[in-house]
Amino acid sequence: MATFVDHVTLHLRAGNGGNGCVSVKREKFKPLAGPDGGNGGNGGDIVLVADPQVTTLLGYHRSPHRSSSNGGPGMGDHRAGYASDLMELSVPLGTVVKDTEGNELADMTEPGFRIVVAPGGQGGLGNAALASTKRKAPGFALLGTYGWEGDIQLELKTVADVALVGYPSAGKSSLIAAISAARPKIADYPFTTLHPNLGVVDAGEVRYTVADVPGLIEGASEGKGLGLEFLRHVERCTALLHILDCATLDPDRDPLSDLDVILGELAAYPVPEGQKPLLDRPQLIALNKIDVPEARELADFVRGDLEARGYRVFEISTVSHEGLRALNYALAEVVEAGRVEAAATQAGKPRIVIRPKAVDDSGFVVKVEGGSFGNIYRIIGTKPERWVQQTDFTNDEAVGFLADRLAKLGIENELFKAGAIAGSTVIIGPGNGVVFDWEPTLTSTAELITAPRGTDTRLDDSKRRTSNERREEYFGRMDAKAAARAELIREREAGMWSTGEEEFNGDVTGDGSVPVKGKKEGGSE
């Protein structure tokens, strides 16, 4: 018998986008005919599809790791990389998709319902797509972005019209086997049913489904027995059918006390917002095992009390099939009324309104975080994070292109407003991200610079020398050279060293000064 699994965690990794290509067209008589690098292909998405033919999550329990293929890289001659095929994962109807924090992403109750849970990466642009009138031959291309990688939770809640609830061994599995083609495991010991069983029942022109929920005991809503684990399978049912055992051998039990315990557990179970509480739904009672003489007497005895509470009561036997036809048509009547009510509720649901992005939404936020060596400015936004992933930081031209894109988006203005200065640490993306030392451009935040009009504090490091300063520096160097020559002459005359020939013959006077040639005595030429 196949194992029933109704809760799994999927580990997903969508395909990465392919890198763009850097290429220049070369052919005879056209050695440099312009860029022709193609774009990279998109990575494959991972999609969940609600399939009525699937009844369990067992396949994902045994193989929880799923990944789609990557997109192909771009090539020369304007050839784009191949786009990867999406991966479709079929799940049963009634599957609730949640993230790792328990937030509901989708409730897959309709056949064919689809949701992309792991989008693939975006392919990078080739240099042909990046060419423009100002950048005629780009020497770089954009890299492909990473596909989504993470975990999601799948929780199966059985989609059935009627739920059979009752104590263990009350005859729920026997009843579903008697009125439908389902063949659940049936034995004479408690908790034989370890997972919900579904059966399809035909009553005239009405067809409905019945769910056999594992037995409930006192304290099931607090985790005792198997009830709490499977009470969520009762959430989607239109009606409840209480199966009461009239032939129990337990001296402390009787049909009325069993019903009170089950009602208490159903009342303690919280249903999702927007759904009816379990006790507010239509409820019928089936007194089972009347083929036993003592059980028939007990059923006749308690029937009046149950009808006085407002319940419709049916005496049945899953062995002799007595009373099953009347119960079958009564359930079909309740189900048909519930479908009419659900259709009216569905028609009155509010329309889904998709609102465009606000005009003043810049698409990113700047968060100031404290650090050991000053504030850290973190930029969070879809566009900046994607642009960083697409940048090849080994290519200076690609880095410059990124800087232009970030400046055009208005990031530098927001950094200045947040208090950043030249040299501040800026991180783009969550976690470690990509770390930069911010060097603002000359044109950014020009109207916000807190310097005197006509000046810019960022230009202080490039101060030019005046003519007087250059003249003084020149004369200083000349005086230093003359002093060095005089020192060498004194050392030579003192006999500390000798060159073997007179290098300054007739050019140097006894006091070490250098006479000016071309002048006559008296100071005139």
UniProtKB/TrEMBL annotation:
GO CC, alphabetical: cytoplasm
Domain Obg: start-end pairs: 2-159
GO molecular function: GTP binding; GTPase activity; magnesium ion binding
Cellular localisation: Cytoplasm
Residue ranges annotated for the OBG-type G domain, each copy included: 160-336
Residues that, per the record, bind GTP: 166-173, 191-195, 212-215, 288-291, 317-319
Described function: An essential GTPase which binds GTP, GDP and possibly (p)ppGpp with moderate affinity, with high nucleotide exchange rates and a fairly low GTP hydrolysis rate. Plays a role in control of the cell cycle, stress response, ribosome biogenesis and in those bacteria that undergo differentiation, in morphogenesis control.
Name of the protein: GTPase Obg
Lineage, highest ranks first: Bacteria, Bacillati, Actinomycetota, Actinomycetes, Micrococcales
Gene that this polypeptide is encoded by: obgE
